Amino acid sequence: MKYSEKLLKGLNDLLTLNYEVEKIYIEALNAVTDTELKTFFKERGLERNEFGKDLMVEIENLNTEMELKFDGKLENGFYVTWMNFRRLFLFEDKVNLYLEICKLKELTISKYDDLLNQKELPHSTITVLERQKAQIQKALNAIIIEKNLVA
User: Fold this and answer.
1) Distance from C-alpha of 51 to C-alpha of 22, rounded to nearest angstrom
2) What is the CATH number of the domain that holds 47?
3) CA–CA gap between residue 102 and residue 138 (Å, rounded)
4) For residues 97 and 89, is the Cβ–Cβ distance under 8 A?
5) I need a labelling partner for 88 at 20 to 30 A (CA). Which of 8, 71, 80, 97 fits?
6) Structural domain span for residue 40
7) Closest C-alpha to 74, from 20, 6, 140
8) pTM score, whole prediction
9) What are the pLDDT digits (tens) for 8-47?
C-alpha cells in the first residue's frame, strides 16, 4: 500500500528534527562541565538517536522508494530556540537552560501532534509516534520539576 506524500514527508521531517536535536544535545554534552547536565545531555542524545532509528525503519516499511533527506535546516522556531539554548549551555545557566530545553521539547511535541493528527495513519506509525511523544513528555515533566528545584 502506498502512503500519502504528506505522511512520508511528515515522517521525514520528524526524522530530520530528531537528528538535529540529537546533534544539539551532543554539542551541549561536549560543552558543559556540570556532571548532572552531562548525564542529561548524553541520555537525551542517545534517546533521540534511537527515535531516529525507529522512524527510519517506519519510513522504510511504508515506502522503500522514498529518498530520505537530512538537510540540517531547522524551522525558524527551532532555530531561535537552538541559538538561545546554545548561548545558555556555554554559560551553564541552569535555570534558563532548563527553560530553553522545555521550549525545545514543547516544539517537538507539537510536531508529533501535527503528524498524529493526520488521517489514515498506519497502526505501527501511531504506535511509534505515541511512544516517542510520551518519552519526550515524560522528560519535559522531569525538567519542569528540576527547573523548579534549581530556581
Assistant:
1) 10
2) 1.20.1260.10
3) 11
4) yes
5) 71
6) 5-150
7) 20
8) 0.83
9) 888 988 998 898 889 888 988 888 888 988 998 999 999 9
